[in-house]
Amino acid sequence: MNDLTCIIIGGGYAGLQAFKQIQATTRDVANGRRIRFVLIDKQPGHLRKSLPNPQLHSMTIC
């Protein structure tokens, strides 16, 4: 059988979340066929900003 191709347009937060949800739901297999993911974005790179983990750093509020 041929592999299925899932094309996700937009590599921002929503595109990456869509990819993660589809991948987690299908476990890369749908109806016995493997799924190949293609992510298309106009930006050459992706920047994800996140807050530092408070467990790794001690913080004091004055």
Description:
Helices cover 23% and strands 26% of the residues. The chain has 62 residues and is of the alpha+beta class. Strands 1-3-2 form a 3-stranded mixed β-sheet, covered by helices on one side. Strand 2 and strand 3 form a beta hairpin. It is flat. 0% of the residues are buried. The mean pLDDT is 80.
H/I helix tally: 1
Global outline = flat
Our estimate of the beta-strand percent is 25-35%
Whole-angstrom Rg: 17 Å
Q: pLDDT average, as an integer?
A: 80
Pattern of helices and strands? EHEE
Q: Strand order across the biggest sheet?
A: 1-3-2
Give the proportion of residues in helices.
Answer: 10-25%
The biggest beta sheet reads: 3 strands, mixed
In angstroms, what separates the terminal alpha carbons?
64 Å
> How many strands appear in the DSSP assignment?
3
Low-confidence stretches: none
Keywords:
alpha+beta; 62 residues
Q: Quick summary of this structure?
A:
The protein is α+β, with helices and mostly antiparallel strands. The protein has one helix at 13-26; strands spanning 4-9, 29-30, 33-40.
Topology:
Elements: E1 4-9, H1 13-26, E2 29-30, E3 33-40
Parallel strand pairs: 1-3
Antiparallel strand pairs: 2-3
Protein name: FAD/NAD(P)-binding domain-containing protein
Organism: Bacillus gobiensis
